Amino acid sequence: MRKLNTEEIIRISQEEFRQAEKIPLVVVLDNVRSLHNVGSVFRTSDAYRVEKVLLCGITAAPPNAEIHKSALGAEFSVDWQYFRDTLDAVKWLKDNAFEVLAVEQTENSVMLNEFKTESEKKYAVILGNEVFGVQQSVIDQCRTCLELPQFGTKHSLNVSVTAGIVIWEMWGKLK
Question: Which of 12, 133, 137, 165 would you label with 111, given CA atoms 20 to 30 Å apart?
């Protein structure tokens, strides 16, 4: 088998992306420090047609050369919005009929692979800071927390890796 070159891989334009149907999913970054993580979330959100990315608190926003380095232009195709406070983003999501879920290890968290979506609902997933995770005050405003099953010695994954897994799983449930 032969590897395809870039010209052989057919992709839609940014304008076609903007017009394309999206999955009913918003990704929220709660005080994510790494610009590379932010860019990676944009790129994954583009790949799976996420509706929007909300950038909160200290999370950097485009235009930014470091975000662009890992987003590869996805920051121009994916709709995004900045909120100074993540709780304001949560309020906006609830006011717009989103089911708000944190991705965090908590008492009574639901394993991501066991989470059941409902076809008529829209969802938002909140991913937290690389060191501290999702703020407790934000968790308190969520319907539930989703947890990724893990079987090794470490208790967490990089936030952009977590975002990729969550977006992929939610795409499969929502498409």
Answer: 137
